Amino acid sequence: MTDEQEEMELSEQTLGDARKARRLEVPSHEGNSSDAEDEGFVSADGSDEAAPAFLEAALILERPEVIDALGAACGDPQLLGRLGLSSPALCGLIFSKGFAAQRVGELARRGLDWAKGCTTLEQLDAGMAVTQLCARSSLNHLYFAYGGGLDVRPVTRPLLAGAANLAQRYPRMRFHVDAHTGAGAPSGIATATAQRRAQRIMRD
Q: CA-CA distance, 24 to 78, in Å (whole number)?
């Protein structure tokens, strides 16, 4: 047996093993055999012509340099996280500390200093969500009616609703509420009103 024949048999065996491991299913296709071949389904001789291309693409995607380039181009921690759940190999690459550190460095170079303390994709995703939420003109401020009112004004209520959504999305996220009143309010009334406002925010 020549080296070329041995290599061919090994390649066919590897492809067969990979098909079994990945449980590739070739969908049936009604119509003539030429249509089936054109769309990558079962050909006339029963072979699966789509499998080699699929496996080649999967192997390329699992290369560390390809994933790193994809992470730099995409920059969306949520999408990258979903990709990492698609295979054990990608999970090991995308959810590694080194991969997260690369994304942190890229965001920091773009001027997003909050990213410097992040060590995981989840933290980066949370940071991006907070940044987007506080991008309004009111930033991270909630406004109340004048005269000691306890109801959040409608103009900033979306911020409160967004913070509540973040609390559900990231159960480990901690929130700091700093309530106060206008400088002209009497000290005794100001303290009590600030406390009630903070309690109202936590309740809402």
A: 27
Residue labelled with tokens 């509420």: 177
Q: What share of the chain is helix, strand, coil (3-state, %, to 5)?
A: 65, 0, 35
- Name the amino acid, one letter, at 120: T
pLDDT tens-digit map of 100-136? 999 999 999 989 999 998 999 999 999 999 999 988 8
Contacts of 204 (CB under 8 A, 6+ apart): 152, 160, 164
pTM above 0.70, yes or no: no
CB proximity list for 168: less than 8 A, separation 6 or greater = none
Q: Alpha-carbon Rg of the chain, whole angstroms? A: 28
- Using left for φ > 0, alpha for ψ between -120 and 50, and beta otherwise, residue 33 falls in alpha
